[in-house]
Amino acid sequence: MRLVATGMLVAMAALFIAARAIGPVHPVVGFIRAFAEAAMVGGLADWFAVTALFRHPLGLPIPHTAIIPRNKDRIAGTLAAFLRDNFLTPGVVARRMRRVDVAGAAGRWLANPPQGRGRIGTGASRLAADLLESLDQERLGGMVKGMVANRLHAIEIAPLFGQALTAAIASDRHVPLLDGMIRWAARILDSNEHLIREMVHARAGGIMRWTGLDETLANKIIAGLEKLIVDMAEDPDHPLRAKAEEGLATLAHDLQHKPELRAKVEAFKNEMLENQAFQSWTAGLWETSRAALLRAARDPERVMAGRLGDALKQFGETIQHDRRLADTINRFARRTAVGAAADYGDGIVKLVSETIKGWDAQTVTGRLENAVGKDLQYIRINGTLVGGLVGLTIHAVDTLL
After folding, report:
1. Would you list the DSSP string of 366-386?
2. Which of 139, 140, 206, 267 is deepest in the core (most CB within 10 A)?
3. Average pLDDT over the chain, rounded to whole?
């Protein structure tokens, strides 16, 4: 557009010179000359005004020209103040965030994700994958394992187990546990019958072994144990089941209130955390999680098509229909944005101000001119045309009078 505006100015100058050289050979020439003269003056005036914003016209140090380079620091301060007062104060952010339905937008996107990744999805996926791959695996894995271990060390698990067991007993969810213990006892007895026979044979006297009574006694013991296990499995009110339930209730109470047992559980937990096998397991868990994150980052469409995608779609539909959940999410987003403005708003403003102040005059001029230069060239074009029309009108009025 700069070439067009300059070309129009040159064309008006050439037209004015030609009309002046021809002379008053015809009344039309006077109108052409008036139009070209006024257009040339208007174009020159607007060229001077536009150029004076960014540099000295023709390199001459005319006062009040090169306005932007001379006032670069003041512009930076004014822009930073405008940004702070209108966008980055907690009050402004809070008012604007009240009109933003973050939960609704997230719910609609999750419930009906757009087909294809899109530019934002592709960029976010590539960024996430690059970040995961660029981070030091050993260091990041060590940080994750350290965080998990520290968290587990900080949690006293005995009361948690006790509370869980108490809740399970209250709602009869411990019954499958008892049934499992009974089945486990049946399998143990079935696979260790020979040990019982050996024990009875070793402790029986010579007469019993000679008469074969030790074998009979062993069979009776095994049969009695098998019947006891079957009775416990079939009778929910069996006395031994009641004793087992009583023992579980006592264990649940002791896990919560008995210091000696809590200390033993805590010591066992710490010993497990320090065990090399457990540490190897956490290392493998981190590698598995990292690989899953990389797969998800590289191919989010495949992930969204699986169970995770179904779960996210269901979550999106829930957000749209559960007003209380949506309000909670919006409140969290609003508080996060307000907190970010309060914590980092001044830093962002300072960064903007110092960045602009750090630019040299040529950089500021070039960037602003690239941003608004096209519109400024339209000003020159309009000035040339409007000036020509004004000159043509004045000449017409003079001719008529």
Report:
1. HHHHHHHHHHHHHHHHHHHHH
2. 140
3. 79
